[in-house]
Design brief:
Elements: E1 2-9, H1 16-28, E2 33-38, H2 53-64, E3 70-73, H3 85-95, E4 99-106, H4 119-125, E5 128-131, E6 149-151, H5 161-169, H6 180-189
Parallel strand pairs: 1-2, 1-4, 2-3, 4-5, 5-6
Helix pairs in contact: 2-6
């Protein structure tokens, strides 16, 4: 059975930090692939600063192309919005019963994971792979040393997509912080200006 890691994000825009993390999981775990799931709208974020779904998917597609173990996913585009992670996981399991799915999340998400819809089912049926983040918030006791939560010593990347958008508006060159093909598409389309 193929093991697929799911890395969710708005990827607005995708940057090298996303790729480094996704590739790290693909290369340093038993996962066969990591899918970068482009989220149309996070229930906890406002939509106004988001590029159109298909444009963000195109950037992710171009960024993943050179990496055979990474692939973009638009699975959430057809789900009712705002969507919850559990709905996506159930849909993926129905569509691909031959795959085992796990969720990749930043350590900062553990502080509020108990508030996620059906978080117990996510843990039980899918499990979490957690990568370190610089902002440390207390993790609830129920999630400390949980058998379905694996901590991964992945590189800590401190690049913010919102800071990149601001830099683009100010006319700064953010090219080194993005996968080249994604940056070329962003630049030629004039996004975030």
């Amino acid at each position: 059975m193929k093991h697929i890691g799911l890395f969710f994000g708005s990827f607005n825009p995708i940057h090298v930090g996303h790729l480094i993390l996704a590739n790290h999981f693909a290369e340093h775990t038993a996962m066969d692939q990591v899918w970068l799931v482009v989220t149309p709208q996070n229930p906890h974020k406002e939509k106004k600063s988001l590029l159109a779904d298909r444009q963000r998917l195109e950037m992710v597609y171009r960024a993943c192309e050179p990496y055979p173990k990474l692939r973009p996913s638009a699975i959430e585009f057809d789900l009712p919005q705002p969507n919850y992670t559990i709905n996506t996981l159930v849909r993926l399991s129905e569509k691909h019963p031959e795959y085992l799915f796990s969720l990749l999340v930043g350590e900062d998400n553990l502080a509020t994971f108990h508030k996620w819809k059906n978080h117990e089912i996510i843990l039980e049926d899918y499990g979490l792979w957690v990568y370190p983040r610089q902002q440390h918030r207390p993790i609830p006791d129920s999630l400390q040393n949980h058998p379905k939560i694996q901590h991964m010593a992945a590189p800590e990347i401190n690049i913010s997509a919102s800071a990149l958008r601001q830099d683009i508006q100010k006319g700064k060159n953010i090219r080194p912080l993005m996968p080249e093909a994604a940056w070329q598409y962003l630049d030629e389309m004039g996004f975030y200006r």
